[in-house]
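User: Can you help me understand a structure? I only have the sequence.
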Amino acid sequence: MKKWLVFIGLLLSYGQLFTQTLPWVKSVPDYKFAHFGHNTILYPGDSLAIERFFRKMDSVVFFGEGNVSIIHIGGSHVQAGVFTQQFRDNLLSISPDLIGGQFFVFPFSTGGTNNPTHYIVRSTGTWTYCRNAVRRETDKRMGLAGAAITTNDPTATVSIITREKYPNDLTPDFDFNKVTIIGFSETENVIPVISYNSNTLHGKYDEWQSTYMFSLPDFTDSICIRFDSVPGEFTLTGILLENDMPGISVHGVGVNGASVPSYLRCDDFERDLNLIRPDLIIFGIGINDASEKDFEKNNFKKNYDELIKVIKRVNPDCALLFITNNDSYKKVKVKRKTRYEVNPNGKIVEDAFMEMGKKYNAAVWNQFDIMGGLKSMQDWEKIGLAKKDKVHFTNEGYKLLGDLFYNALITRYIEHIQLNAKQ
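Assistant: Let's start by predicting it. Here is the structure, written out as tokens:
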């Protein structure tokens, strides 16, 4: 590896020539109201955990060995899927052979809500849906996905297609030959099966993980899940698609309205996380926490402490990267009229992430500052990058954020290569 890193280091010394030869750094527009010159990954503490992650990336990028697993976790910004997918596509553009061996998905549209953009879900039959952001007595146990769908309809099916079938689609293909269905039957009478090429495949049940593991006869990009027609109820809480290929796996885990406590109330979060054992967790949770009337910085940090404990139990060497909140506004009523007022908690959350970055030797991407700081969301809205609610972004806005985040991370990775090439 040493000689190869020296060679890459020589290429990197040419700077612009390298980025033109290998499109690692993406060009982004410049806006006067934004601080794109601040677009970097910060290290409030030390960078040892990120360096471990980068060293694992070296094996994958330069030798095609091993698998790097990344989870981006958050609320509606992540459930939409655009930010995560833009980051993933950019990361995989480094080499055509980097598509990793895991793909964690949940069929949100089966529950009547928006599905991430990078896979297609089709379903039949009657289902009920619950999510970790809403607490009800009828809720089912939830895990990593932060959501669950339940059916007692013997005709119910869920189909997953891992790529769009359009000529102009640039999403990297993901083919798989292993499927893990995560879920449970209250009566143990209902068993999920996979319809595949007119055949019915049965999985191997793991009682501790509450999973059904299927080995397919060959690679595919789509499956259909149905159930043995025994009366009863089944709850689906996640699907993991896998192959044995080395590469980089990027998983988006996001639920509309989710806060840090939302994930803490998922009973099976830690159990499901063991299926993936992430090397890097990108935290994008905070926008909903900061919208609460009783928001308090210390409680916010304490909740994160509990979540990080869970992650460290699964993988003590997992690198952590915090994304600060975007600037946002609140809808308020004044004399029966509705108007938007800036949410001052954005700055408080920025400080909290910096403090946690130092405490956990985690990296921080200061999205709040990069987009322009307090009241900048209205500028993003004016040029069509943010929606009228001044909380969410348009697809173009999310793509721009995905490019910026990728550029910040890949620039740090290039610095890592340069440093190692000199040693």
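Now, to help you interpret it: The chain has two domains: 1-101+245-423, 102-244. The chain is about 30% helix and 25% strand. Let me know which part you'd like to focus on.
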